[in-house]
Amino acid sequence: MAGYKRVLFIIPPFEFDSRLENAKKVRTSVLLPPTSIGYLSEILTVNGIKNWVLDLHFTYSMDEVRSFINRIKPDLVGVPITSTYRHDLGYEVVKAVKQMSGAKIIVGGPHISITGPKILDECVADFAVKFEGEYPLLELCQGVNPQKIKNLIFRENNQIVENDTRDFLRNLDVLNYPRYRMFKMEYYSEIIPIISSRGCPYQCNFCTTGSMGKFFRARSAQNVVDELEYWYKKGYTTFDILDDNFTLETKRVYEICDIVEKRGLKRLNLRTSNGIRADKTNIDILRRMKQIGFRYLCFGVEAGNDKILKIIKKGESMEKIELAISNACSLGYEVGLFFMVGHPYETSKDVEDSIRLSLKYPVALAKFLNIIPYPGSDLFEWIKKNDYFIGDWHQKLAYSMHLDGEPFFATPDMPLEERRRLMIKTTKVSIEVRKRNIKRKLRKKYGLLGYMMVELMYIDKIHDLLWRLYNENSAIRKLIEFSMKMLRVKVYHF
Predict the structure, then answer these.
(1) What is the per-residue pLDDT across 81-121, written as a single tens digit (0 to 9) for each?
(2) Is residue 484 in some structural domain?
(3) Does position 457 have pLDDT exceeding 90, yes or no?
(4) CATH classification of the domain holding 83
(5) In the predicted model, is pLDDT for residue 476 greater than 90?
(6) Of 433, 449, 467, which marks where a domain is finished?
(7) What is the number of domains present in the chain?
(8) Is there a domain that residue 454 lies in?
(9) What is the average pLDDT value for the chain, to the nearest integer?
(10) Same domain membership, residue 208 and residue 292
(11) Could you list the residue range(s) of the whole structural domain that residue 320 is in?
(12) How high is the pLDDT of residue 82?
């Protein structure tokens, strides 16, 4: 097999509709370059395989995509399907590319790791990769026989073949970190995402093994700071560390801090918006992280009392969670808290405990998420066994997000209407937390005037209008962000 020498990555949009035809390619303050495609593009680049990236978030019309394909003539097109939510958009891109190009198509991402070989029944791609995809993609492009490429799923003689699963990479330093050479970086946020580790060893009942597995492995401290320094020299100072378990190895975190300081990387703005475990922090490590530039920390709290934490196998106690929140707030961090609503055996009273915790400390953000039971998780099996699903869960997986108020399931402890009521209530609590945070900042800087500004901004109709305009109109979003910047107030939404 000759392999593939010209690879085009096409990143699907959030919404595949007529607005794509007229949308402008402008920098967005909320969209980060995708690390997954960054790693795949980088491994191809360093191995001499030409590749390009089209990100339809910005958004190229199908006519532009067709024109680009006709110009570069790729022999392989990669389409990431990272989320089960709206995976149909990825399928639509695969179908459209199939109609306009003779190139083979490969799909990959967490959705494939959950779905397995039936992905090729659901879309017209030729190949799929489950779990880690860097080396399977490289081997395919280098001409290795598909039958010998572990993690690969492919079509052969009208049959779908699923190869064995390869061991997860243990030494992540062998991978070149993303340089995003093929990306239009001027369109993205000025925040650089960093993945410094993979895998999660914990047993939370709502989680699947995902695309990165249970086995935790981390890049070396020097390797992580090399990536920070690379972008620092290009003028970037804000970084979002998107690990599931950044602070799991305390020694490594201290080493990262020491090397950052030794290399003179100053005025950094570091954040962990994907969340870290509260029990893997203490006042000393939080203080050290703050010294070198960490400013925003999120904790995956999930529930507001020990009863539910034990049921969901979180492996943490409220005592440790509250200590971590208190420590972070006392050190001046912006703190975000993530909760889920509607766990097995959770009652309205239990959710009230979560609400009380979200309002107890001066945090910047509290998100209450509608639980999504993914196939492969203990939660999914429990719901299925007890016949608690409401409606078509397949359909809901495709079209419901964590922030949607429509539940996937109901239990005797929390019936359907009570779940809906609590999702509405916790959404209002999230707004209240954000409001209190802005009030604290503006009152401190501008006294009573600042307080009144926030009260006006959070009148229901005005707030709803501003939020809608912020999300739908790039010019209004820029104006709002410019105003907040002038007031020196940072508002966190994730």
Answers:
(1) 987 777 788 889 999 999 999 899 999 988 888 888 999 99
(2) no
(3) no
(4) 3.40.50.280
(5) no
(6) 433
(7) 2
(8) no
(9) 89
(10) yes
(11) 190-433
(12) 80
C-alpha to C-alpha distance for 126 and 119, rounded to whole angstroms: 10
Asked whether residue 321 is domain-assigned, the answer is yes
- Give the per-residue pLDDT at 213: 75
- Using one digit for the tens of pLDDT, what is the confidence trace for 269-309? 999 999 999 999 999 999 999 999 999 999 999 999 999 99
Regarding whether 202 and 121 lie in a shared domain, the answer is no
- 129/205 same-domain check: no
Residues 329 and 197 placed together within one structural domain of the fold: yes
Q: Is the predicted pLDDT of residue 334 greater than 50, yes or no?
A: yes
Using the predicted structure, report yes or no on whether residue 18 has a pLDDT greater than 50: no
Counting Cα atoms < 13 Å in the Cβ hemisphere of 275 gives 17
Domain of 375, CATH number, reads 3.20.20.70
- Give yes or no: residues 283 and 354 share one domain: yes
225 with 268, same domain: the answer is: yes
Tell me the average pLDDT across 42-69: 92
My answer on whether 317 and 261 are in the same domain is: yes
User: Using CB atoms within 10 A of its CB, is residue 152 exposed (0-12), middle (13-18) or buried (19+)?
Assistant: buried
